[in-house]
Design brief:
The structure holds two protein chains of two kinds. Chain A is an all-alpha fold. Helix content of chain A is 69%, strand content 3%. Chain A has 22 helices and three strands. In chain A, a hairpin with a 3-residue loop joins strand 2 and strand 3. The C terminus of chain A is likely disordered. In chain B, helix 2 packs antiparallel against helix 3, helix 4 runs parallel beside helix 6 and helix 5 runs antiparallel to helix 6. The longest helix of chain B is centred in the middle third of the chain and has 31 residues. Chain B is elongated. The relative contact order of chain B is 0.09. The model of chain B has no long low-confidence stretch (mean pLDDT 90). The chains are: A mainly alpha, B mainly alpha. Chains A and B meet through helix 6, helix 7, helix 10, helix 17 and helix 18 of A and helix 1, helix 3, helix 4 and helix 6 of B.
Chain lengths: 411, 147
């Protein structure tokens, strides 16, 4: 079949344009988008590709079209019983169609572009679209009528296409939603439809979640200072949206650490906001005499706990070590700021953490213990700071000793 | 029997809620009540660090349903060697190199390596196909820039 022959199929046009219209509505846009030309392109089959969004048309591979058309062959057929492999194939084509509908509805071009973005820019955009797709898949399937045409296929699980970027952006959007007191889907929808302004919109939500006056303040800065502020806030996501930052060796086993990395990146985003607010004279706790360092240590502790709570499997061990390290950092700040009284309080906290750590470490295997030691090493440095700055270092040393003994490892 | 401390009680609430959510045996009302209980525990904590962690536990509880939904999508590929390799190759392909020709050659090499990866499962294949398609877009963009 040639490109022209495929282009005459009215069902092809209807299915693809309905999909785009549903993506348009999912992004909260009103009105019906302009219909776009759809063609079948056998070249995509040769390239093992499914759908490409160009400037003026959408190209589908024959394989993808066959998988989508199957949905409308005969009403009432349960493909999952009749041919499970084909049912999964069609479900995957629907995932591709859903992703394409969001790209097209947001006015982006998924195909060839002359301007090449950075890896981070690419991953931020792909990640936010992916997270939005996971959240809105069922609604989108209902909107395009797949739940009626093939309820068994609509019930098949959503497939991840960008697991690292999608997870990182889901976590970041959760942070932004919580800080702004708005639903997660609203944030994801706004970010998914941001197009080229994605980084500015992330920074805007992050700043507005802290203080609604902060975005306006940054807006009034000169272009260079404004860009630097936005960059400072968004930059920590570089380390969470793609594999380069933490999967450094070709021999390390993949670990489910994406969520923990993402939570720690969201903490760093918040630290960036605090720094920008501090420079603008808008940091809230400064008026109560709380230092920037303490406020950052508090948020890091909070984030480390959330990271631990949402982690599972071996990633939970690394998360626990992060939690201990964050607690150590908080102890160091307290001891510096409060003197002896701070150390007494902090030492009690360190003992309490040691109990948690000890209980968890007792059931750990050798590999898990190694992960804990590696990731928990920053604690020793923090405790060293605390010793140096504390007048009452004996209590702190005792707390560390207990932590080490109960944890059963030596830093 | 040893009395549980306030942080331990909060941790236990969190663990129990997570278990019940995973088993689909925790309603939204139950979750809200648990969040409230944990918040009250935070108010009782004497130690600042404990208070911050318990407040974080309440926040984590609120986020748990979303986190578990995300886990259901990403769980099947989170520990996949193939996906880890694909993502590493994508990052390698995007590295800045001194010349455009070198970048084009790097992207081509990454695409070739992805094509040579062991036969993936259907969930791995979706990641592989999508991210390989992105590299083909990048390659086309670089070649267009060269022209």
């Amino acid at each position: 079949m040639t490109v022209q022959q495929g282009g005459r199929d009215p069902m092809l046009h209807r299915i693809v344009n309905d999909a785009i219209a549903a993506g348009h509505r999912a992004l909260g846009r009103t009105g019906r988008p302009d219909r776009i030309a759809v063609v079948l392109d056998p070249e995509l089959d040769r390239q093992h590709r499914s759908i490409v969004v160009d400037e003026e048309q959408i190209r589908l591979s024959l394989d993808t079209w066959e998988a989508l058309r199957r949905l409308h062959y005969v009403g009432g057929v349960r493909w999952t019983d009749l041919d499970p492999a084909r049912a999964r194939h069609t479900s995957r084509a629907l995932d591709d169609l859903h992703a394409m509908s969001l790209v097209a509805a947001a006015g982006e071009t998924g195909g060839t572009r002359c301007d090449v973005p950075t890896l981070t820019g690419h991953c931020l955009a792909a990640g936010v679209r992916e997270a939005f797709r996971w959240r809105t898949r069922q609604e989108w399937l209902r909107d395009v009528g797949i739940d009626r045409a093939a309820p068994d296929i609509a019930a098949l699980p959503c497939l991840a296409a960008y697991p690292t970027a999608g997870t990182a952006m889901h976590v970041l959007a959760s942070y932004l939603a919580e800080r702004n007191g708005i639903p997660l889907d609203e944030v994801l929808g706004a970010l998914a439809g941001a197009g080229d302004n994605l980084q500015e919109r992330i920074a805007h939500y992050a700043m507005a979640g802290y203080d609604t006056a902060l975005p306006a303040h940054v807006e009034r800065l000169g272009a260079t200072a404004r860009e630097a502020a936005i960059r400072r806030i968004v930059a920590p996501m570089d380390g969470a949206v793609h594999a380069r930052a933490w999967r450094t060796s070709t021999t390390d086993a993949p670990e489910a650490r994406t969520r923990l990395n993402a939570v720690m990146a969201a903490v760093a985003v918040h630290h960036g906001v605090l720094e920008v607010a501090d420079e603008a004279g808008l940091r809230h706790d400064a008026t109560h005499g709380t230092s920037l360092e303490r406020e950052k240590a508090e948020y890091a502790l909070r984030g480390a706990y959330v990271g631990w709570a949402v982690s599972s499997g071996t990633a939970r061990i690394a998360a626990l070590a992060h939690r201990v390290a964050a607690r150590g950092a908080f102890v160091a700040v307290l001891s510096r700021e409060r003197g002896a009284a701070g150390v007494r309080l902090a030492a009690r906290g360190a003992v309490s953490t040691a109990r948690t750590l000890g209980a968890s470490a007792a059931s750990m295997g050798q590999r898990a213990r190694r992960a804990l030691i590696t990731t928990g090493r920053p604690l020793s440095a923090r405790m060293g700071q605390m010793h140096a700055s504390s007048r009452s270092s004996r209590q702190a040393r005792n707390a560390v000793r207990e932590l080490v003994e109960r944890g059963g490892f030596g830093f | 029997m040893q009395m549980l401390t306030i942080p331990e009680r909060a941790g236990r609430e969190l663990e129990l809620a997570a278990k019940r959510l995973r088993a689909d045996r925790l309603s939204t009302e139950d979750l809200d009540r648990t969040v409230e209980r944990v918040r009250r525990l935070a108010a009782e904590a004497e130690d600042d660090a404990d208070r911050i962690e318990i407040e974080a536990a309440a926040e984590a509880l609120k986020q748990l349903p979303d986190a578990l939904a995300m886990e259901r999508v990403c769980g099947p590929v989170e520990s996949s060697n193939v996906v880890a390799l694909v993502e590493r190759l994508v990052a390698w392909a995007w590295e800045e190199l001194p010349t455009l020709d070198a970048r084009i050659e790097r992207v081509r090499a990454a695409v070739r390596r992805i094509e040579q990866l062991p036969t993936p499962t259907i969930v791995e294949e979706h990641v592989l196909r999508t991210q390989r398609a992105d590299l083909l877009d990048l390659l086309a963009a670089l070649e267009a820039r060269k022209r």
